[in-house]
Automatic annotation (TrEMBL):
Domain Peptidase S8/S53: 26-136
Broad class of enzyme this protein falls into: hydrolase
Family of this protein: Belongs to the peptidase S8 family.
Gene3D superfamilies: 2.60.40.2310, Peptidase S8/S53 domain (3.40.50.200)
Domain Subtilisin-like protease fibronectin type-III: 185-279
Source species of the chain: Handroanthus impetiginosus
Alphabetized UniProt keyword annotations: Hydrolase, Protease, Serine protease, Signal
Keyword presence, Hydrolase: yes
GO BP: proteolysis
InterPro entries linked to this entry: Peptidase_S8/S53_dom (IPR000209), Peptidase_S8/S53_dom_sf (IPR036852), Peptidase_S8_Ser-AS (IPR023828), SBT (IPR045051), Subtilisin-like_FN3 (IPR041469)
Endoplasmic reticulum listed as a keyword: no
Name of this chain's protein: Tripeptidyl-peptidase II
């Protein structure tokens, strides 16, 4: 380049138009800077919930720091707006849904595979876990029609706090003498830390699909644990109907101690796949 410049009186350079590279593979993958679990505040709630695009995102930018009105940014501050926008769209489609129902729809319809059809990996192409991607990568269109949702109300969260921090933050809601364990919160995932023996928790699902529908469950058991769900079939006859099921988890002799292993359970009516990740560790 230097020789070209010094040997020409009027050196020129040609810049071709910018192009967008699409179809990169594998995608998505988990960025190295992405926040990871387990949940240090309450390990009996699986975190993160979901993953969304957050690497090299074209975003609006203040002119106070640049002559441009946009920038390329990476981070949770970029993935969060994607999820927030999906939540807003779901609220517009389903105005009667609670924030818990919206979160459930986003989580239970997420995908765990990349565009190669293989499990999502980290930036080094090692298999990722729910402590990296949560329920999976967000799928907005599927979230609009999840089939079932795990709903929760104000009192459910107060009861959760009773079991988690042993106190109520609302004077009008006294904690029961024996509070349920934090894992009992009606969450679209299941996490049980330091399990000794056997634990059973209850989950409630609300039908937001066809009025008459029947769901059966399949279980991918975490290594070293037995997971049983009862009943194994849920029969709905109305939109808005809520049914309950129990999840019984037992640590086997082969369970690793002080280390989480992962699995999942999925309710399906042949159309919807309502999937919940599982994270378990033995004491």
């Amino acid at each position: 380049m230097y020789n070209y410049i010094v040997s020409n009186r009027a050196p020129t350079v040609t810049l071709p138009p910018a192009t967008t590279s699409i179809g990169a593979k594998p995608a998505p993958f988990m960025a190295s800077f992405s926040s990871k679990g387990p949940n240090n505040v309450e390990p009996n709630i699986l975190k993160p919930d979901i993953t969304a695009p957050g690497l090299n995102i074209l975003a609006a930018w203040t002119e106070a720091f640049s002559p441009l009105k946009y920038n390329i940014i990476s981070g949770t501050s970029m993935s969060c707006p994607h999820v927030s926008a999906v939540a807003a769209l779901l609220k517009a489609i389903h105005p009667n849904w609670s924030s818990a129902a919206i979160r459930s729809a986003i989580m239970t319809t997420a995908k765990q595979t990349n565009n190669l059809g293989k499990p999502i990996t980290d930036a080094l192409l090692n298999p990722a876990t729910p402590f990296e991607y949560g329920s999976g990568h967000i799928q907005p269109s599927r979230a609009a029609d999840p089939g079932l949702v795990y709903d929760a109300c104000y009192n459910d969260y107060l009861l959760f706090l009773c079991g988690s921090i042993r106190k109520s933050l609302d004077p009008s809601f006294p904690c029961p003498t024996v509070a349920p364990p934090p894992s009992a919160l009606n969450y679209p995932s299941l996490s049980i830390a330091n399990l000794r023996g056997t634990m059973t928790v209850t989950r409630n699902v609300t039908n937001v699909g066809a009025a008459t529908s029947s769901y059966s469950v399949t279980i991918n058991e975490p290594s070293g644990f037995s997971v049983r769900i009862s009943p194994t079939r849920l029969n709905f006859n109305a939109v808005g109907q809520t049914l309950s099921f129990g999840i019984t988890v037992q640590a086997q002799s082969t369970a690793r101690t002080n280390a989480f292993v992962f699995g999942s359970y999925t309710w399906s009516d042949g159309i919807h796949q309502v999937r919940s990740p599982i994270a378990l560790s033995a004491a």
